[in-house]
Amino acid sequence: MCLLLPRFHRRRVSFTLRKSKQITTPARRTTVQAAATAKGRHRSSAGAAMEVKCRRLEGKVAVVTASTQGIGLAIAERLGLEGAAVVISSRKQKNVDEAVERLKAKGITVVGAVCHVSDAQQRKGLIDTAVKNFGHIDILVSNAAANPTVDGILEMKEAVLDKLWDINVKASILLLQDAAPHLRKGSSVIIISSITGYNPEQGLAMYGVTKTALLGLTKALAAEMGPNTRVNCIAPGFVPTRFASFLTTNETIIGLCGRHGCGCRIPGL
C-alpha cells in the first residue's frame, strides 16, 4: 500500500518500519513473535475469506459478449460467483458449450448463445436468450473486439476499417438498442475499451482509435441512459489472453516493442 502514497509518505512509512524492527529485550521479542504469528493466522483467514462467494448480485442477470475465453470469461465467472445469472456468448457453439460447463461446475447459473456481434440476428438472439430464461437484464458487458491488422491507418483497406468499426464500436450501440427495453431500473452497462484508447500507437493505431471512440460513447450513453442505468467503461492494459497473443508473436509488434514478449514494453500497453 505504500506504493500508492506520495513519495514523502513512502519514506516516512519505510523509516517507521525500520525502527519497528529494533527489538532489544526478550520480552519484546516474544511479544513481536506472537504478533507475527497472529498476523499470519489473520492472513490465512483473509485468504480463505477471499474464496467465499459474497453473493452481492443475487437476483441479477448479466449478459457478457465474447465471454468464453480471456477477459470476457473472467468477467462472466466473477459475476456468477457474486450470485448473478449469466448469459455468455461466442462465435462458436463448441466454445459456448465448454464455457457453460466450466461455469456450471463452479455452481454458477449460466446459459449460452452463439453470437457474432456484427450479426443482427445473433445479437437479437443473445438478448432473447437472456429474456426467455430470466425475464430481464440488469448488467450488460460489451466486451467483443477485433484487431485484424497491424497496418498503418493510411495503408488500411476499407474492408478492414469497416470490420474494426463494426465490431469494436457499432456493435456495442446496436446491442444496447436491442437490450435497452429489457434493462431494469438500477441496471449497469459496462463497455470494455483499452488503454490504447488513450494513446493509439503504431501497429495498434486504428484499433486504438476505435477504443478511443468507446470512451466518448460511454460519456454520451451515461447522459442518455441515466439515472436509471449506469454506464461505465473499463480500459485494460496488456492482459496475456489468446486475443492478445499476437502482441508477443507478431514480428511488426515485436520490432516496435523493442523487446520480444515483454508486455510492459508493448506500445500503448
Automatic annotation (TrEMBL):
<comment type="similarity">
    <text>Belongs to the short-chain dehydrogenases/reductases (SDR) family.</text>
</comment>
<dbReference type="InterPro" id="IPR020904">
    <property type="entry name" value="Sc_DH/Rdtase_CS"/>
</dbReference>
<dbReference type="Pfam" id="PF00106">
    <property type="entry name" value="adh_short"/>
</dbReference>
<dbReference type="InterPro" id="IPR002347">
    <property type="entry name" value="SDR_fam"/>
</dbReference>
<protein>
    <recommendedName>
        <fullName>Tropinone reductase-like 3</fullName>
    </recommendedName>
</protein>
<dbReference type="InterPro" id="IPR036291">
    <property type="entry name" value="NAD(P)-bd_dom_sf"/>
</dbReference>
